Every structure is written in C-alpha cells, then in structure tokens.
Amino acid sequence: MTVSDIQRIQDAVAEYWPDVRWVESTGSTNADMLAHGEPGMVLIADEQTDAKGRLGRQWVSPKGAQLAMSMVLDASKHPGDFGLLSVAPGVAVTDVVPEAKLKWPNDVQIRGKKIAGILSGLDMPKVVVGIGINVAMRPEELPTDTSTALNLEGIDVDFDDFTIDILTAMGRRLTQWQTGDPQLLADYRTVCSTIGQPVRIELHDGAVTGVVDDVNDAGEVIIDGTAYAVGDVFHLRPTS
After folding, report:
1. Which stretches make up the BPL/LPL catalytic domain (predicted)?
2. Which of 1, 99, 170, 208 could form a disulfide with 159 if both were Cys (CB 3.0 to 4.6 A apart)?
3. Which of 209, 215, 217 is nearest to 191 (CA)?
4. Distance between terminal CA atoms of the chain?
5. Nearest Cα to 85, choosing from 19, 131, 51, 41?
C-alpha cells in the first residue's frame, strides 16, 4: 500500500500539519526529521531501511506494508514534563482503531499482539514523533511472533483515508499533550490493558513482579505502590 494523493492528505490535515511530504524509501523518517524537520512537518515513507525502535532496536518497515511516518512538534510550547509524550500517539491510534489497546507505555496491540511501534526523539526546540503501523502484511513478513497487522486482524483500510484519520487524531492528541489537557491521561487509562494486570518488569539493575495499580500523572507505571518511569524499564511483560 502507498500514498495515492498526497495533496488530498495535506489539505485534510492542514489544521495540524501544514507540511506533509512523502518519499518512496528512506533510512529513517525520524532521523530525517531530526536533521531537517521543522514544526508542523510530516514525512511519510513507503519503506524504511535503517530505522530504530526503543533501546536502539532495529526497526525495518517492508515496502508498502506499513504506515510509517514522523511528525515534528515545537517542544518549546510544552509547559512541563515530557513523560506523557509517549502516551499521546498510542491513544491517537486507538481513536482510529477501536479494536486496539495499549500495553504500557505505548505498545499498540490487538488481542495482545503488536500492530504499531512509536518512538520519539527530542532535539530542542523540536520533538519528533515517529510511528510505524502494520497495515498490510503477510504472516511471514511479521517481525516477531507477537506482532500482527490490521489486514491479518480483518481490518482493511483505504491507505489515504487511514493516513488522514491517524494524522488528525495525532494532531488532536498531541495538542492535548502540549496544553496539559487532563483528558489525555484519562482516555489513556481507559485503553491501557496493563492496568490491573500482574506483570514482571525488567529494570536496568534487576527485575520486579507485581500488579499494576495505575499509571500516574507523569506517565509512570505504578506497581504495588512504587512508580517506574519509561526510562527505568527495559521490558514489561504480563505474568498471567
């Protein structure tokens, strides 16, 4: 799948994103936007050959299989902590794909299998939010046995319409993040499947097991009364 009409996409999302661009292939949309992007810019790529996920893991998007893009925001407009930046993009996807839930902090899943990866990069005064959503993949193309794609879950989309919907939802949710709107975190808690679940988290200096009580106002996961930030946690997995 690929962009059919970039101008239609641009016109539809101009309220939030006045400069939407498309390329057939690039190494990493995040790297491109960190190097050259300006606030309000979006770069969509049919293929990424050298992208990175969380903790430096390799992230490759096969040609035509994902909606892979990066969005640039003015970080100086945000009033405080960046802890909730990881929350907004995941909630935006669930706005468009109601079958999806979020595993803390922002793994977008359907039936416990991941359909999207989200990674942000900060280079003051801008922040780049990158996302890759598995839209149309064959089972053998899935990167792990815990991954899935929209088409494999019986969800077929028009690529341009889906891109418009995702960018509109991203604009709305990232604006909530920038303005400190408490509704963002309230909605996150509604779609976060990790809350109430027994889990094991791997930290950089050990591991902890327990039940997730909540996600606090800073976006930290609370396990048996103790808060853990995204940067402290190497991996979180359910234990039941």
Report:
1. 15-178
2. 1
3. 215
4. 37
5. 131
Q: pTM for the complete prediction?
A: 0.92
Secondary structure in 3-state letters for 147-213: ECCCHHHCCCCCHHHHHHHHHHHHHHHHHHHHHCCHHHHHHHHHHECCCCCEEEEEECCEEEEEEEE
Q: What is the CATH number of domain 6-191?
A: 3.30.930.10
User: With bands split at pLDDT 50, 70 and 90, how would you rate the model's confidence at 193?
Assistant: very high
β-bridge pairing 226-228 and 221-223 = antiparallel
Convert the pLDDT of each residue in 65-103 to its tens digit. 999 999 999 988 665 567 788 889 999 999 999 999 999
Q: Is 64 left (phi over 0), alpha (psi -120 to 50) or beta?
A: left
Q: Are 177 and 87 in contact (CB under 8 A)?
A: yes
**Torsion angles phi and psi, residue 106, rounded to 5:** -150, 30
How far is C-alpha 187 from the geometric centre of its chain's CA atoms?
15
Backbone φ and ψ of 215, nearest 5°: -120, 125
Q: How many CB atoms lie within 10 A of CB 97?
A: 22
Question: Structural domain boundaries of the chain?
Answer: 6-191, 198-238
Tokens of 116: 């999207």
For residue range 124-166, what is the model confidence (pLDDT) as tens digits? 889 999 999 999 999 998 888 999 999 999 999 999 999 999 9
Q: How does residue 191 score in pLDDT terms, banded at 50, 70 and 90?
A: very high
